[in-house]
Amino acid sequence: MTGATRRPLLSLVLVAGVLCLLPSSGFVGSPAAQLRADSRVVARVGAEYTERQSPRDADIPFDAAAATGATVDVSFKKRPFGILRYTPGNGDKGAMVQEVIGKSRYPGDPQGQGFAAGVKGGWVVKTINGQDVQTEDFNTVMDLLDDEVADPRFSKSVALALEKQGGRKAQPAEAPMAITYATIPGYEWKGEVLGADWEPAHR
Questions:
Q1: CATH number, domain containing residue 126
Q2: What is residue 7's predicted lDDT score, i.e. its pLDDT?
Q3: Residue 109 located in a structural domain
Q4: Where on the tree of life does the source sit, at the highest rank (predicted)?
């Protein structure tokens, strides 16, 4: 075999070797690349769900039945209300506001309703459309509110969570919705007040 013949063959071998060394996941559309992309999506949604539902160090345990202090009436014209997070009281009874979106982006912004109405962390949901829910099961209160901003159980990524709990505990209350909040005398809320520059963590 001549030197001229060996050179093309050597080049061909080198190219083949380089291609073999390249990871298959590097090619667009390969199963490995798609799996990694899907994993990132699942991880992001899962992390958001977990973060939204998880308690915070600043959350102070409370008894919803103890919310016998001052009350505030608020009317929400439509969902979502702009309340990001509630927590259950002792025994998973009742619901306390923990985080409210800290701005209204434009007049009539539904996600700015809580902010515009002055809803504050530490307020316990007392009634919904006249129905006393102060010591109802937490999931019942969440289902009545049916506020997708606050309750990610109805997201496609966590649909199984709703199935696991046996379906809805209550049908969503009709909007416009009249909600009465009550305070707990002597209770010191230490949650986070979201400012006007707040943005969702996943954005």
A1: 2.30.42.10
A2: 52
A3: yes
A4: Eukaryota
